[in-house]
Fold this protein.
Amino acid sequence: MFQSFFKNRKIKKYARKLPQDLKAHYGYKQHYSKVQVDYAIKRKKLGNSGAVIVTDNCYAYAMYCSPEEFKEIHDNAGENCDYAAMRSEISDTLFNGASDFSFSTLLVESTNSASSFSTGDFGGDGGGGFGGGDGGGGGD
């Protein structure tokens, strides 16, 4: 029970605090590198102060890195995590199971009022509308 609570809390923090930081420091992109995500986590003080541990940041990597980068991160760490399954968990936590989300979805939701965070709802009403496309903006 507590594990699920802490996982959901971590996902919501990554969703609330990282999009604006990533955009401000690296520009608008569909995906960011592990290094960029790690620096954003450090700047926002979301990780431990020591070395970056891959398993601590898995959900952030699933949110902001490409599937290929995610696989490379975990292969290099000797970890086995499922990108699609983690993104499904993120979607369930943040968007009431809407089928997909993108960086632009996270960015828009992170700029919405803080009330959506205080209610435990990240946004969305389960009615969909969160497409996978980032529609314009800079590429990788």
Observations:
- Confidence is low (pLDDT under 50) at residues 113-140.
